[in-house]
Design goal:
The chain contains 14 helices and eight strands. The protein is an alpha/beta fold and about 350 residues long. It has one domain: TIM Barrel (Alpha-Beta Barrel), CATH 3.20.20.70. A six-stranded parallel beta sheet has the order 2-3-4-5-6-7. Strands 1-8 form a two-stranded parallel sheet. Helix 3 (about 30-45) crosses helix 10, helix 4 (about 85-100) packs parallel to helix 5 and helix 9 (about 210-220) packs parallel to helix 10. The radius of gyration is 19 Å and the shape is globular. The structure holds iron/sulfur cluster. Iron/sulfur cluster binds near residues 65, 67, 109 and 110.
Length: about 350
């Protein structure tokens, strides 16, 4: 039965939900090794050897929402809040560009201080000042705001749906609606954005079937990028005391996401590296990932963008992160891309 599934993967045939669920239960080392080798082959065949770097800038840790798992949720009064102004963002983008990053990811909690006008002006100035692709990851906004930001030059948008199980989604997100999130992801694609989404692995209440459905949903949505990271429990949230997701399950989801979606960009996430600092990113790159997002946020803000605890690299200046990450990528024999790293599905360079 397992060999049949491996044969299907080798023949580039589509796996069923039951087959994906079954592959997620594999635990024997030799079977996992065979799965991972196949994921690595698919990665090679569809997106090549290069690893794309995206400079991550965490603009603000204010958030109007209260997602149950998140360390910067509205009701966490224990963390000091910060917000970068446009000038500071521009300086940080220039630093990222100087380090050779051809994409910047501007990410924040859902912070309405950044009005549509402020965001449009920020994106315009970034595009005028720097030769970089711009990815936004700032949460849910009205449709017309996404349109204006695309016109201003934003290339990509990242917004995870976190789980494709609508009941679990509802439990985890008291002030968001599953249907709305999925609708926004569809709009973004219609507008011409390269769209990224993803899920958490191991969040309380999630099943193997949920994860298999998540992976099929990535494919159905024809996403350009898929980020998959382990759930890491934050003690200042209502999920305090729950067990973390595991490195092993996250690697299986990364591998199967590569096998099923084939030509998406898949990051080796910081959350995974947080659970396995020694070689978490390298492992992810060897089972299907092809993107890394080094942090460029000014060091004084790093510790405050605490989506989950013990996040790695919070004390390292952007230059150190770059040196560390390029060294890790080269240590596994992979070249670093000098290009923007646009979607393999549609090259929509602006
Ligand atoms: S997950 Fe995002 S929207 Fe939810 S509380 Fe955290 S920052 Fe806000």
């Amino acid at each position: 039965m397992l060999q049949e599934m491996f044969d299907k993967i080798d023949a580039d045939a589509d796996l069923t939900k039951d087959e994906i669920s079954y592959l997620l239960t594999l635990e024997k080392e030799d079977e996992l090794e065979q799965l991972y080798q196949r994921a690595d082959q698919v990665r090679k065949r569809y997106v090549g050897e290069e690893v794309h770097l995206r400079g991550l800038i965490e603009l603000s840790n204010y958030c109007r929402k209260n997602c149950l798992y998140c360390g910067i949720r509205r009701d966490n009064r224990a963390i000091p809040r910060y917000r970068m102004d446009v000038e500071e963002v521009l300086e940080t983008v220039a630093l990222a560009e100087g380090l050779g990053y051809r994409t910047v990811v501007l990410q924040s909690g859902e912070d309405l201080h950044y009005t549509a006008d402020i965001l449009v002006s920020m994106v315009r100035q970034v595009k005028q000042q720097s030769d970089v692709a711009v990815t936004l990851s700032i949460g849910e906004r009205p449709r017309h705001v996404y349109e204006k930001l695309f016109e201003a030059g934003a290339d990509r948008y990242l917004m995870r749906f976190e789980t494709s199980n609508p009941d679990l989604y509802k439990r985890l997100h008291p002030d968001s609606r599953y249907e709305e999130r999925m609708a926004i992801l569809t709009w973004l694609k219609e507008m011409g954005y390269q769209v990224g989404s993803g899920v958490m692995v191991g969040v309380p209440g999630q099943t193997f079937d949920d994860l298999a459905q998540d992976i099929l949903t990535f494919k159905e949505m024809d996403l350009d990028m898929v980020g998959v990271g382990p759930y890491i429990c934050h003690e200042a949230t209502p999920l305090a005391g729950s067990p973390n997701g595991t490195v092993e399950m996250t690697l299986k989801v990364v591998a199967l996401t590569r096998i099923v979606t084939r030509d998406t960009n898949i990051p080796a996430t910081t959350a995974l590296a947080t659970l396995r600092p020694l070689d978490g990113r390298e492992k992810a790159l060897q089972v299907g990932a092809n993107v890394v997002m080094p942090n460029v946020t000014p060091v004084k803000y790093r510790a405050l963008y605490e989506l989950y605890p013990d996040k790695i690299c919070i004390g390292d200046a952007a230059e150190q992160c770059q040196g560390c990450i390029t060294g890790r990528i080269m240590s596994i024999g992979r070249p670093i891309s000098q290009d923007y790293g646009h979607s393999f599905k549609r090259n929509t360079a602006k």
